[in-house]
């Protein structure tokens, strides 16, 4: 019997370990690979999309010499693994949890290396656990991969590349392909835009200062579009109109497929306008905050991009336009079917209040939008972890 089992030893699990140790609670972290493994699944040129100063896990703030820069993928992995060493966290590597079940007043955690019995369990399996690809992908006859499997341009066959999905991953992969000189097609859907820097500060700093990062998440916010920016080359804007202006073929959402032919929605114009509106609302909120607080800040140097899509196709013949590969940047899904309790909604998302569920002794941490927009970020997961551990201890589940 152990007080607490933490499932997952990424940044969320390790932050939980920090606060458990602070409260003197015995625990173990079960990790199916190694701490930081999920970050190794990003492409080679990937870098942190928020500035380095946001690397602020409990007791272990960023200690480099470039707080306003954006560290690369392998440096992110190193940061997580150094944190594990700093904590001397009790991690059991190569231990996959197969099932979690209730046994009277305890929890039984079934793993490939035997069972653990715990008074409490904290599920910290990550914000992006399982890649999601639409069913139409099964009927398309070219090379296909999810964005989680994309590593480098040179792995792709010669020819055009279609990227489907205009969230953070899709936009950054399009940028990677452009830099490599590939012929790029981009199937766009809901996207949020904002300048990388505005009126003297990185957009992340403004979002923190105006209070956005501390807002309680609503379902509308959770389902909304993230702001697409990049940390590459010191940080830069990513803009759908700029992509189109610079030669990327913007097309609508993929609605069907057969062989080499895709059916497309005619949503490009609406998508561009909606992304512009997100940017305008964000800049307006910052402008009002600056005015209301009498902040000395440079004037806006924002310049709208004057480009509009021509009539976009409703049908795309991959062979005729030379597309040889598709990258599905279509997000991730949760699958908690291995947890034998009835606390999940129709989408498989756990019902909770800031990580605390209705099942005594069962908690979640690190989920996308768990409590605030910062909940799945290095800068926010520590506060949520402390809340979960405080509840766990104060209700005397694990002591």
Question: Explain this structure to me?
Answer:
Strands 1, 2, 5, 6, 7, 8 and 24 form a seven-stranded mixed beta sheet that branches. Strands 10-22-11-12-18 form a five-stranded parallel beta sheet. The radius of gyration is 22 Å and the shape is globular. Strand 7 (106-111) and strand 8 form a beta hairpin. Helix content is 26%, strand content 23%. The chain is built from ten helices and 24 strands. The protein has 399 residues and is an alpha/beta fold. It has helices at 11-22, 37-40, 73-87, 168-179, 203-209, 219-223, 240-245, 268-292, 318-321, 381-394; strands at 2-7, 27-30, 56-57, 60-61, 91-92, 97-103, 106-111, 114-123, 130-131, 143-146, 160-164, 184-187, 192-193, 197-198, 201-202, 227-230, 236-237, 249-251, 254-258, 261-264, 315-317, 323-328, 332-333, 362-364. Helix 1 (11-22) runs parallel beside helix 3 (73-87) and helix 1 (11-22) packs across helix 10 (381-394). It has two domains: 2-129 and 334-394, 3-Layer(bba) Sandwich (FAD/NAD(P)-binding domain); 133-328, FAD/NAD(P)-binding domain (3-Layer(bba) Sandwich). The longest helix is centred in the C-terminal third of the chain and has 25 residues, at 268-292. The model has no long low-confidence stretch (mean pLDDT 94). The protein starts with a strand and ends in a 5-residue tail after the last helix.
